[in-house]
Design brief:
- By secondary structure, this protein is mainly β.
- The chain folds into 2 domains: 89 residues, Immunoglobulins (Immunoglobulin-like, Sandwich), CATH 2.60.40; 262 residues, 6 Propeller (Neuraminidase), CATH 2.120.10.30.
- The chain is 9% helix and 46% strand.
- Strands 1, 4, 5, 7, 8 and 9 form a 6-stranded mixed sheet that branches.
- InterPro entries: 6-blade_b-propeller_TolB-like, Ig-like_fold, NHL_repeat, TRIM-NHL_E3_ligases.
- Keywords: Repeat, Signal.
């Protein structure tokens, strides 16, 4: 082969190689485009779920996950991140757009979720955005918080007692302001329900809707029963130590027979009356515990299961009596106690720094609101929705806790 022919042959081979590289490059680009187009035009792909929300600290032992319903979606798959496997695992397949995750998790630990539409293996969506939730590890959380210092509407100086009526309206007796204010279940002021001459005390409601209110005064009866029109239908009591007399009224309660029990702190007795004010009996309320600096002094009282429970702010012993005043036994709350209420087989007790939920034997115990109070919690009641309402006296606040 001569020199000229060799150069031509080399040039021709080189040109073929260049054409092949360029064609390969073009083919790769086209293939990529075809793949993307195939994904975009998949007619079986549905809109992905939106507004995925996981509850953040709203519940003590569960996380609730919700999302917006998607048109054409018949079914959803919810995934949860597994820390052990470091991947999302299928948690639930359902047509619902909410899920309650009751799996045990460490409180205040983030748990991540994502969801997709999944009608079939050829009809599904991309995943939603990811959201996380967490639990508090607590069964109760603050639900309501109202009040401020002062003597006006919705203001308090020393709110020592609280009660609810059958409609869950809230009544707060202010020892220093000498009045009882009425609020609806959201804390909205409704009216000045009762104005005492000196000092408003405990209150309770009879089955007929009449209210039993108590006060300390030198010029009026200590106990009044008021009907729905604010008429006084019964009235009795004055200062002293005899039957029907009081030195310092504290808590009151009503039994199934509509008899009224009234605590006298200084006299250390509970007096029992019928709803006309007729004196029935009285009995010693508390004892002085060992190493107790102060003498015996009762405060809170409630009726439950044919028994009367009496607390003391000076010791941890809750004394239990029958309806005739016979001492039955006692339970130890572990700390000083103030207001007490019974509802649905549980006792709720205002203690030093928390609310104790227990049974009548004190065998089941749950502490509510630990570390959340900065002053004395005194009055306590429970409404029809099992929300616990307490007075934080020195903060001049009314606080309620709901079960999560």
């Amino acid at each position: 082969m001569n020199k000229y022919l060799l150069l031509v042959t080399i040039a021709f081979i080189a040109s073929l190689s260049a054409c092949k590289k360029e064609a390969t490059g073009n083919k790769s680009i086209i293939d990529t485009i075809k793949i993307n187009d195939t994904i975009k035009v998949n007619v079986n792909e549905l809109d992905r779920p939106i507004n995925l929300k996981a509850s953040k600290g709203l519940y003590g032992n569960r996380i609730i996950v919700t999302w917006t319903p998607i048109p054409k979606a018949k079914n959803y798959r919810l995934f949860k991140f597994d820390d052990t496997k470091q991947d999302y695992q299928l948690l639930k397949e359902s047509a619902d757009t909410s899920y309650t995750d009751l799996a045990t998790v460490t409180p205040l630990t983030k748990v991540f979720y994502k969801v997709m539409v999944y009608n079939s293996n050829i009809e599904y969506s991309k995943f939603s955005d990811i959201d996380y939730g967490y639990t508090t590890g607590q069964a109760y959380s603050r639900n309501l918080f109202f009040g401020s210092p002062g003597s006006g509407q919705g203001q308090f100086v020393y709110p020592n007692y609280v009660e609810v009526d059958k409609d869950d309206n809230i009544y707060v007796a202010d020892l220093e302001n000498g009045k009882i204010q009425k609020f609806d279940k959201t804390g909205k002021f409704l009216e000045l329900f009762f104005a005492g001459i000196r000092s408003a005390r405990g209150l309770a409601f009879l089955k007929n809707g009449n209210a039993v209110v108590t006060q300390l005064t030198l010029s009026d009866n200590y106990v009044k029963i008021i009907d729905k029109q604010k008429n006084v239908v019964a009235s009795w009591g004055s200062f002293g130590t005899g039957n029907g007399k009081f030195q310092n009224i504290e808590g009151i309660t009503v039994d199934d027979d509509q008899n009224i029990y009234i605590v006298d702190g200084i006299n250390n007795v509970v007096q029992k009356f019928d709803q006309t004010g007729k004196f029935l009996l009285k009995f010693t309320a508390t004892i002085q515990a060992p190493n107790q600096a102060h003498g015996p002094y009762p405060f809170g009282i409630c009726y439950y299961n044919n028994k009367i429970f009496v607390t003391s702010p000076y010791n941890s012993i809750i004394r239990i009596y029958d309806k005739n005043g016979k001492f039955l036994n006692s339970l130890d709350a572990g700390t000083t106690t103030e207001g007490i209420k019974a509802r649905n087989n549980y006792l709720y007790i205002a203690c030093a720094g928390f609310i104790l939920k227990t049974d009548e034997k004190g065998e089941i115990r749950e502490k509510i609101g630990v570390g959340q109070f900065s002053s004395l919690i005194s009055g306590l009641t429970v409404n029809s929705e099992d929300e616990i309402i307490v007075t934080e006296v020195y903060e001049q606040k009314i606080i309620s806790y709901k079960h999560l």
